[in-house]
Amino acid sequence: MRADAFTRDQQAWLDQMLARIPASLRSIAERTHQDMVVGDKVREANIWLRETVESMKPSPSIEEIEIDAYGEEMSAAAETIAEKFMDLTRARVNTDERLIERAEKSIGKAIPGDSTTSKVKRITDKKFWKSQIRKNLRLHRELWHLRLAPTRLKYCSTDATHEYQNMLAQHGEWAKAHIFVSDNGETFPAPTPNETKKNRYCQLVAQSKGIENIANEKKMVAMIVTITLDTQYHATLTINPGTPQQRRIRNKNYDPEMTPRKGHDWLNKQWRNMRSALGRATKKRGKIEFMNVVGAQPNGDETAHWHIVFWCYPDDVAEVKKLFDKYFRTNDNPRQIDFEKAESAHGASSYAMRMLSYVTRQVSDSDDEKQEALNASAWASTMGIRRYRTSHTKTTMWRLARKKEIELPDEMKYSAVSGDYAGFLTNAERYKAKLKYVSKIGSYGDSYKKPIGISFINDCGNFQSSECVKIWTIEQAKSWVADSCSKEPSKTETPPADEYFSTENRHVIEPNAPPQVWWNGESYPF
Predict the structure, then answer these.
(1) 494-517 pLDDT per residue, tens
(2) How far is the C-alpha of 90 from the C-alpha of 85, rounded, in Å?
(3) Interatomic CA distance for residues 330 and 197, integer angstroms
(4) 505-511: long-range contacts (C-beta < 8 A, 24 or more apart)?
(5) Distance (Å, rounded) from C-alpha 452 to C-alpha 438?
(6) In whole angstroms, what is the distance from residue 250 CA to residue 235 CA?
């Protein structure tokens, strides 16, 4: 039977099925269906298409929304849902609890919020619903690519990369249109995504280098551990790897329910269990002291794998390897967990820096590597995966300590301003430094704590604290307002953030380099 011999009803059913598939994949689905039809397997072809579409059921929040909805279409759908719940709040028969229950059924999960009032404010706000729709639609479309065309992926689909780039462009436009204004009239331009990623790279480099310096001072040794998930998480298999005949084929053992996010969640769960085991003393050993830097990276078929730079004492290496096997090994493939010893004292940080360059898209070797780094970032954004973490978490305090208005003991202040993360951690422990918080109320009425300063015990043994007194607000830039009213849009662009790597700011990425200006305004050296 030929595909063009379908009756009107058959063609209508086929169009209805294809409409539930992303537009960029419909030709692939239709071609697969037609190939089966031409082979006189009409019934099998229809069953395959129906079962495939039904198995890819979207989350409740996007069931009534077009699968190819973007931008304005998402906004319109979010506004419709918010208005529906706003109308329901006016009906006397509907209590707040009943409305929240109905919204949770629509969204497929619990509505966040500290109180009933804050939850009701969320379900009647179009911004909340647009956020939910965007996250769920992006994920749903990407899972369709994994289902129909996994061998064509390179970390993520082209659609996901384009959507991620569009989001970055929108963030850049927002940054150009807004400024930060303090209560005493100071202004500061909003950072663009390009500036943010470079700043983030510098910060993570200083953190990783600081952790390595602490580990070296304690005479720890470094291992580089790579963990790969089991076969059911992989949509494809690589044939003839490392040869000119290398290619990818579909994995018959792949379970579509094991999405990249679920694989990453499993790694997180096992990592928590292993860290707990390391911190427990047994009859044979005491607690194992360790430090680590963890990076998450996608395979070609979007399956997550982890690279871990792990520091411990030499006597604990054998026990640590046993624990990695206990918590992460699920098959007899020796490549599932790979241990590699750092080649030198600085080999571990070099490996960590390479991970960071991909996480923050600071790759400059080739266009292919730049594209791969962009795809990996789009993958993490779509799947909601955090790609980098460390065992030391005083980053918020470190960033606060760099502010001019925060007064701290000289050693602690200098280590923060100069980018010496290891020195800052040592001094923070010496002075028993803690973050100081103030209670705030969010836009939905939820209470949260905002860090505003640092408290510590000075050399005299007295309790002391220092706070940020400036209050910053976000306003629309006047130049942007003028440009928007002119006939032609402004062509002025924010210059790239190369100043993070300039000679005057080398202290940002070189922990031991002194700052050019002391925090009290005096030049350095004295």
Answers:
(1) 333 333 333 333 333 343 433 333
(2) 9
(3) 36
(4) 507/417, 507/418, 507/419, 508/202, 508/206, 508/419, 509/202, 509/205, 509/206, 509/419, 510/419, 511/206, 511/209, 511/210, 511/213, 511/418, 511/419, 511/420, 511/421, 511/422, 511/423
(5) 7
(6) 6
